[in-house]
Amino acid sequence: MPRGKVTLLIGPNGSGKTTLINVISGVLSPDGGSIIFEGEDITRLSPHERFKRGIVRSFQIPRLFQNLSVMENTIVGRDGNPGESVVRGLFKSLWVEFEKKAFSDTFGKLEFTGLKRLSERKPGELSGGQMKLLELSRTLMPLNPKLVLIDEPIAGVNPALAHEILASIKKVSAELNVTFLIVEHRLDIAVEYADYAYAMHLGRVIAAGEPRKVLEDPKVIESYLGV
Amino acid sequence: MASLIGRYLRLQSLLIVVIAVVAIILAFPLLGLTITDVFSITTILIVVLALNFMAGYAGIPNFGMALFVYIGAFALAGVGTRIALALVEIASPGFIELMRSSYPVILGDSGSFEVFVRVAGDPMVNRIMSREVESVIEASPILSLTLTLAVFGFAMIAGALTGILASLAAVRLREDYLAIVLLAFSELMVSVVFDQTDALAGGPNGAWVVRPWLKINALEGLARLLGTIPDVLISLAVGLAVLAVCFIYVERIANSPMGRMLRAMRDDDLAIGVYGRDVAMTRLKIMAIGAAMASIAGAIHASVYILVKAADTYDRVTWTFIPWAMMILGGMANNWGAVLGGIAVYLGRKAIYYYSPTIASAISPILGIEASVAGDILRAQLPNILVGVLIILVLYLRPQGIIPEKPSRTLSKKDIEELT
Questions:
Q1: pLDDT (tens digit per residue) in B319-375
Q2: CA-based nearest residue to B246, from B342, B346, B149, B335
Q3: B71 and chain A in contact, CB less than 8 A
Q4: How far apart are CA A140 and CA A76, in angstroms?
Q5: What is the ipTM of this complex?
Q6: Which among A141, A157, A179 is the end of a domain?
Q7: Which of B309, B303, B318, B307 is nearest to B349 (CA)?
Q8: How many CB pairs (< 8 A) connect A and B?
Q9: In whole angstroms, what is the distance from residue A187 CA to residue A155 CA?
Q10: Which domain holds residue A159?
């Protein structure tokens, strides 16, 4: 994957896109092979250890904290809070400044995804599209991401906001030199913002390169149409 | 200090405190409540707060609470008598020799080490030695303080280590499996290991408790007025102090980023792991702290007893399931709820005990049995039946409990308004 760029991962249903994200993020262990990240073999590391190396992910079906507010769901995406300790948590002076900065960033992300007015609500009160947006807001919270894996960020999101989200991802990627891998089925919108693309079919990469060329590749068309 | 008190006593909290205090005061004449009941409420509230910290906030379904409470009692009974004996022997060498000449039939010609080993395991040796050392301890401020620190320190450390041990095999499991492992571990330790091993704390015969408290004559008058003994008043004072410390601890953590992270971990441990949190390590720490709190409660609880038996005194109904009922009724992941639920369930059970003769004489002609038999059945079975029914009803009708969970209040309203 080109560093600091937005890479699109496409393929028909069941081609293994989400499985690939699960394997890279450590949610599933691979049956064989290894995962190399920045020259380090991370195959045996747990998800939280991979996160510490800069791998962040979102889930295709949002995994939200059902009893936490929208605000809280987003802010827990921010790592390194000194107040997350059974001892330091007792002393507010040790974490209040970090917390204020995290709150302010959270409001920023929620403003961007249009969820700010719902910040006190619980995830159960949101629509499907809003849940996807909340999942995305949380994915944008970590402090030093290097590789962000996003599974269908614009599924169920209206076209205008979908464009805004992908434009913003591209901007974050360029400004902060963060690599994004995006799984998406809405190719008409996504292709505009991707720098590179991979196509998968039956668990294997069948095409790679410039996004529009990948979409036009006969093997890719064949896998989508099943002919 | 004033700002600290002010912070915790906001309007709703104030209301809960007022309701609780009024309920307890009214319960004295209405339910025949005694100082011992107030003491029991104090110790069980520490256990409920510890359980709420583990299960309500962190999502660790601890069905092994009885074990952690018993570890504290063990610190005072089996271990306490031995520590006390060692302290007394160090303070006045020749104590064991003196005991041997005073009780030749029981101690025979055992060596000092053998006496020390048999202290917990042999019912007769245990009984005599615990009373004899206690009479030395209660007269010496230095010995009393040293023993207090030693037994409570032991309870805390042994409780935390047991918590870690219980979680080592279990923290990576899913919630439902974790619950079963903790229940099984607790049963195995209390009913098999402790209850069947004489050398630990007397096995099924139990072990006599050595109270570490100093004899304070000035408390005699107050104790008589309250219908109790000075030792119980000291235990109650220590219990209330520990309850206050535990409450402030769990409430502060609940309203810190840690509390928020724990609630997130409880809701979805995979998602919080993907966001860089070490779920296994966090569960381990929470288990250690919660278990240590429960063990201290156990040590305080045992300090008013004369004799404690592992499986008898620290049964799973009283120390695991009833605290669960209290927490579920009050509201999980809410410390004020846990306190309110704890007091409500305790007073409810007390009311059944207190009024069972009246109810029994009313229903005995209908059932065609003697009033005394009906009363015994009511007292023995009704409270537990009602606790079971209560759990089902609350989970069905109001699963969030009396006071529902609230967002972690990490920043003040003013701070948040400024940030928006």
A1: 999 999 999 999 999 999 999 999 999 998 888 888 888 887 887 788 777 878 878
A2: B335
A3: no
A4: 11
A5: 0.90
A6: A141
A7: B318
A8: 113
A9: 11
A10: 1-54+144-227
The CATH number of the domain where A25 resides is what?
3.40.50.300
3-state secondary structure of A150: strand
- For residue B253, give every residue at least 6 positions away whose Cβ sits within 8 Å of its Cβ, in sequence order, or none: A86, A89, A90, B53, B57, B259, B262
Contacts of B258 in chain A (CB under 8 A): 83-86, 89
Count of domains for chain A: 2
Only one residue has tokens 């400024």, namely: B418
Rounded to 5 degrees, φ, ψ at A32 are -160, 175
Chain A partners within 8 Å of B285 (Cβ): 86
- Flag whether residue B220 sits within 8 Å of chain A, measured between CB atoms: no
Domain assignment of residue A59, yes or no: no
Residue B375: its H or E element: helix B371-397
Judge if A217 and A151 occupy the same domain: yes
Query: Is residue A60 one of the residues assigned to a domain?
Result: no
Distance, in Å, from the CA atom of A186 to the CA atom of A59, rounded to the nearest integer, reads 17
Q: Answer yes or no: do A83 and B278 touch at CB < 8 A.
A: no
Least CB-CB distance to B268: which of A65, A86, A90?
A65
d(CA B52, CA B286): 11
Nearest to B133 by CA among B93, B88, B80: B88
Q: Which residues of A34-49 are buried (b: 16+ CB within 10 A; e: fewer)?
A: ebebeeeebeebbbbe
Please classify residue B111 by burial: count the beta carbons closer than 10 Å to its beta carbon, then call 0-12 exposed, 13-18 middle and 19+ buried. exposed
The tokens 């064989």 sit on which residue?
A32
* A119 plus A159 within the same structural domain: no
Same domain, yes or no: A102 and A1: no
How many domains, in total, are found in chain B?
1
Nearest to B404 by CA among B318, B315, B338: B338
Domain boundary among A81, A111, A141: A141
Residue at B189 is within a domain: yes
CA atoms of A78 and A114, how far apart (whole Å): 19
Distance, in Å, from the CA atom of A132 to the CA atom of A156, rounded to the nearest integer, reads 8
Q: What is the pLDDT of residues A172-210, one digit of tens each?
A: 888 888 899 999 888 888 888 899 999 998 888 888 888
Same domain, A177 and A217: yes
The residue range of the domain holding B261 is 2-411
Please answer yes or no on whether B264 and A76 come within 8 Å at the CB atom. Answer: yes
- Are B184 and B166 in contact by the 8 Å Cβ rule? The answer is no
